[in-house]
Predict the 3D structure of the following.
Amino acid sequence: MNAALPAIPAKRYFTIGEVAELCSVKPHVLRYWEQEFTQLRPMKRRGNRRYYQHHEVLMIRRIRELLYEQGFTISGARNRLQELAHAASGALPPDGPDAATLEHATHAAPLTPAQLRSELEEIRALLMR
């Protein structure tokens, strides 16, 4: 079902609404998962607005896959993520569901000057709020 999820745009920060759409989960589910999974710590700005980074969107998709597609419980998914983190610190898990995601994330093309400028302007706008 991950193939049905939209591509993640080349942005530095995402709002909770954007992440909800990118991961096909509701915002209240994301807030709940923040309590259950210590790996999810979005940056919070004025008014407690959450801003997720690309790696957190990938983590949310991984959690969603474990819970909704593989049938893990919350504690089972938490344990599986810890196992994957330990395995990733030494080597990538063979044939693991995240191997392709990690491979793509580590070999992403560098940003063009126009993309970099766009990201910097976006960050500036976030800081000016």
